[in-house]
Design goal:
alpha+beta, 7 strands, 1 helix, 3-stranded antiparallel sheet, Immunoglobulin-like, 118 residues, single chain
Length: 118
């Protein structure tokens, strides 16, 4: 009886571990594609930088979570801020208009990548 309880406990722990990791393991770029993006500066009294663009689910399954990550740099190339935008439930073939905002006044450049998707 004690052996059966131990085995049952191990099975339950294994199922719990699988349910915590499956479906939330990020993939980078596998199913989300950034089609276009542009860095713009806005605001006279409260200047902000925005990276706006379009991303598309190029996979064959719904993305429960899709993320775009942006890093912002100053004129010397120093990383000064980062940000992201996300969407949920993006079906195959659907596009998404994202907007990542940076609040530092001295942002002059950025780079972008597909973040976590599942």
């Amino acid at each position: 009886m004690r052996k059966a309880v131990c085995i049952l406990g191990l099975i339950m722990m294994g199922l719990l571990l699988v349910s915590c990791t499956c479906g939330t393991t990020p993939t980078h770029g596998g199913r989300l594609e950034i089609l276009s993006h542009q860095l713009t500066r806005e605001g006279e009294y409260f200047p902000t930088a925005h990276v706006r663009g379009i991303a598309k689910n190029v996979g064959d399954a719904r993305l429960s979570w899709a993320e775009v990550d942006v890093r912002f740099y100053d004129s010397q190339g120093n990383l000064i801020e980062n940000g992201f935008d996300f969407i949920s439930d993006l079906d195959p073939g659907m596009t998404w208009s994202f907007d990542v905002m940076g609040l530092k006044e001295n942002i002059t450049a950025s780079d972008i990548r597909v973040g976590s998707c599942w």
